[in-house]
Amino acid sequence: MANVETGLISLDVSGNHIEDQKPMRCLPVTYPSKDDVAYLAHFESRFPHVFVALNPFIQLFGFPSEQYGAELPEAAENRAKRLGPRCGRSWQCVAELSGLSSVRSVNRALRLTGSGRIKAELSNPAETESLVDACRGGHLFLPLEGTWSPVFELQAAAFLSALDHKEVWSARSIGVEPSTISVGDLADTELQSNPEIYALDGSVYMTIYPDYHYVLVCQSRGSFERADPQKFFEGFHATSNTTDFWGIGSHAEAHTNR
Questions:
Q1: Predicted confidence (pLDDT) per residue in 174-230, tens digit
Q2: Can you spell out the DSSP letters for the chain?
């Protein structure tokens, strides 16, 4: 039976483990190490298709006003997951509510929230203030930074199920400590996923950088032909020029400290 090599483990073509192999210590692929590295160039040896999927905002009522305009409290995550997509709000919707020009402006505005990892000359504090004020007035929580929101987990479960994946590798940031999980676990209201997913057959890789609010959905050609992520997530397909500077401006030689 043909094998598919995936770093420290071998799989047969159906995605089953081959006996007597060492456990995987880390995923065989990682998020780009620099902001100005084009996604498609970084992943080209494995994944010719990369989709930038936007982590949804969450709208829930009944919380103290001072909690809105920040990340979703851990205590509210199960409630959001039970409500599902109906409590998710798109970046485009929030851009219009905030008076921002596009989802690209939302990305830049979000960079000054949470860890705030963006250089001052690349940021726009006025956009961030408009975004936070609109979220406070609209009972909205910001997308989670560096991990998947409850609504995104449900979207990911639907996407992976459409590709007939039953189990996947789930790992912490930069692909460490991978373990196999059921795709159904992503829809479990009591569980929160790790920020990286890798298909057993190596055809899909989903990753989010610790300081950012969007997920890169990377696919083999065959996987993309079976399921276009644009049907499951808000976002856009990366071009040859798309890097982590999307929405930050024309700063090809600048860095956000990475």
A1: 888 899 999 999 988 777 778 899 999 999 999 999 999 999 999 999 999 999 999
A2: --EEEETTEEEETTSPBPTT-PPPSB-S----SSTTS-HHHHHTTT-SEEEEEEPPEEE--SS-GGGTTSBPPHHHHHHHHHHGGGGEE-HHHHHHHHT-SSHHHHHHHHTTSTT--S-GGG--HHHHHHHHHHHHHTTEEBPPSSS--HHHHHHHHHHHHHTT--EEEEE-GGGBS-EEEEGGGGG-TT----SEEEETTSSEEEE--TT-SEEEEEE-HHHHHH--GGGTSSEEE--TT--TTTTT-S-TT--S--
